[in-house]
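Sequence of STAS domain-containing protein (Candidatus Methylobacter oryzae).
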Amino acid sequence: MSRLNIIKEGPRHFVIDGDLTFATIDKQTLKSFSFLKSASEVTIDLSGVANTDSAGLALMIEWIKYARQNRTQLSFKNIPEQLLNLAKLSGFDQSSHFAVQTD
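Predicted 3D structure, token representation.
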């Protein structure tokens, strides 16, 4: 298990490093949404995610909801295939947030 870290790479760019799992997503993670208000457009790069489960998908959905409430345009890139598969199973793959983007 690798601890979840949100790393600021620039004013509008963040990298997620570690696991997006039930074991790594805690109350502190859920309280750390303020990074989504740092700019009118925010990109979250998921290339550093090693393992994920449905909790990772749930966190991404919460980020999307929070961004909408705060009028922040949110995009994800380098979404791990495992998360894309979970999104497909859940029907969230139709959202523009889950469109495949890579560097």
